[in-house]
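Incident log, structure service

09:12 report received: a user says their structure output differs between two submissions of the same chain.
09:20 pulled the input from the user's history:
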Amino acid sequence: MNKLERRTALSLAAVYAVRMLGLFMILPVLPLYAENFEEATPFLIGLAIGIYGLTQATFQIPLGLMSDRFGRKRIIIAGLIIFAIGSVVSALSDNIYSIIIGRAIQGMGAIAAATMALAADLTEENNRAKVMASIGMTIGVAFAVAMVVGPLINDWYGLSGIFWITALLALVGIGLVAFVVPTPKKLFHHRDAGVMSDYLLPAIKNANLLRMNIGVFILHMVMTANFTVLPLLFKNQMNIESASHWKIYLPVFALSFIFALPLIIIAEKYQKIKPLLIGTVATLILAQLGLSFGLETNYLVLASFLMFFISFNFLEAIQPSLVAKYSSVSNKGTAMGIFSTWQFMGIFVGGITGGFLLEHNSQSAVFLFGGCAALVWLVAAISLPKPHFYKSQLVKLSPLMLQDSQATTIALYEIKGIKEVAIAIEEGIAYLKVDKKELDETALVAFQ
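09:34 re-ran on a clean worker, output below:
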């Protein structure tokens, strides 16, 4: 990567991180406040946890498309302003209903699609995947950090303090976008990174992508439902004060990452992604059953919690890779946008379902629900075909090759190792899916 691309990757990763950190810090804390707010019920607490997922899912694709028209940085800054407003509303709240409103406003500042499109605008074709990966990694890092610092900030400054810090983080993000993130000279519709309205229907109708969407929906639904219970479990059953919950979260996240990393490498390097997908979804079921039926045994709860996050970290890492493998070269970016929308809808449904079951049934029922949901996912995952391990590759075409894109497409298909071709004339790029073991790289030189 050149200097501009490194600056783009670091600054946009920081912008993404401060927003996700603000959203996640409340997750291990809010369930503990059911007794502090008048009229607060487990269901309303669950709604407050998950409501941002609904508004995020609703606004993410529209804001991404609007960034094509009004500019990436304008939409991102507007989204961060909305996010800051929601944080302030929640910080000033003295009842659960205004917190729900504030959290809903936070989700309306949905900048993920616009951020990825801006990253694509600012990077060369061959380095784009690296920049996207660096931004995507910040989600996992932000989640782990939020789980640790959220309870600590709550102990020092209370719930409102978390929201005030979240608002401050949003302002930091605005400053980064305005003064640090480079401004692209021209905006493009990137098939690999942005949502394109023409490809929405084909991506939605793809049966394999639908199974992947169901999977990410269930994964985040189960995770969010779990967190309507886990902080209460740690405090009331294990007698661990909320300020010390990081002593559970930190080692669990560290160990889960250590165990998940070799699984991720094996899945990609040795092409074992489908059997490991099925195995980790099955592990997810076992973890939920362990939490449901082992509530009275602290060691079983902790072991099941660790099993859950080993599975979660692995699945969170390899699912986007599978979406890329199952999507066509033309609609990869659109497929990713839809996939992300299902993810946030899962957060919303998980929050309200976990809260409802906790209010009307029991803690055990929440985890049992998670196990049943994961079983549905297992059935869907088993029916997935074995994916092809083709790589995405972008080739900058010469003006001569763009004069007759149809002839260029036919010529590219004749090169050994090229499996899919889509030419974006406005970008001057050929989007390819290639078998790296077969590809004749030297033959591509004539097209550049």
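09:41 both user submissions now match this output. Likely a transient worker issue. Closing.
09:42 reviewer note: The first strand starts at residue 391 and ends at 396. The chain has three domains: 1-195, 209-389, 391-447.
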